[in-house]
Amino acid sequence: MKRIIILLALTAIFALFAVPALAQTKECTEEFKSAIYGKWWDNRQKDQPAAYEAAKEYLAVCTTDDQYTAALKKFKAAYEAATADVTNKKQFDEAYKNKNYAEQMRLGKAVLATEPDNAAVYIVMGLAGLSDPNLLNESAQYARKAIELIQAGKPVTPLFTSKDQALAWMNWDIARATLKSAPADAIPYLLKTAKLESDLKKDPRVYLDLAAAYNDGPQAKLTEEYKSKVGPNNTETPESKLVLENLNQVIDRQIDALARATALADAANKPGFLGELTKLYEYRNKSKAGVNELVANVLSKPLPEPPTPLTSLPTPPAPTAPAAASQPPGSTGVTQPGTTGSTKPATNTGSATGTGNGAAKPVATPTPGKKPRTNYRRP
What we know:
Layout: H1 2-23, H2 30-43, H3 48-61, H4 69-97, H5 101-114, H6 119-131, H7 136-151, H8 163-178, H9 183-195, H10 204-229, H11 238-264, H12 270-285, H13 291-297, E1 334-335, E2 343-344
Antiparallel strand pairs: 1-2
């Protein structure tokens, strides 16, 4: 009996709390409409947060369209869009400061939905891939758009102090995204990066990427082509010689890039870079002589463009005829020892570069041997 009395008492208490709750349920009466719409009207310009709350309240209670709902819905949508944009920008700035690259990409897309020409947002999204390789392919798309906007005159401050700085970093992002899938296509972007006046111009990583692009792109392709052009028993053919000439041009560009990386490297990385350079330099030149001089002077030289493909073998220089021996006046030949004025034509008795009949001996054309394995470590 005591338990029943307690249950009845609790039921009475719950009923007392339920009465005010039911009393607070709002109805879409004319009085409610007039009051809430008036609240919105009075605040729509001077206090938009209060106007927004009034619009939300009205539309939540009065679900049937009337003469007020169109204006309230329009205001509510515009207010939410505007405040969302402000919120997205604030969060995007926080993600940039905190180096949260994934959030930079996510929030950047939201900002660009309302500001499609915001160059600063495109630049930040382009930079994200250089710090997070998982974002590299996606960020390269935004780097391309950033380049387009920068070249059209959009400002690059405060992210960068100059147009060249911004363009260099955007080009490097595209190059890095292209390096593995299409290394030959990365070369023009790397050359642009290195030639623009920015801090990247003296960054050894750019030149390591350039050397890798030459190695994995045109050099690898030409090496395979050379193998298909040589004759039986690895004998040279005119076609293989032509490929070899083009291959050597590419290797020379690769050597130049490695030399620049070595010249710009810090003390910890320089020995390793120099070792890679020396192996390739010796393969190409059959000697190590000159590699240190190359490193010492390479930065004073212009960065070479990709080689123009050769379509025919270079014409060898015409052989120079040996100078005639000086003879006494009236002499018509070489006086032989032990004779009394008799003469005979001079003859070629053979030499290291002759065949005994005056014809030049052809020099063997070098063939690609096993190239040193490249292992470029980026600092």
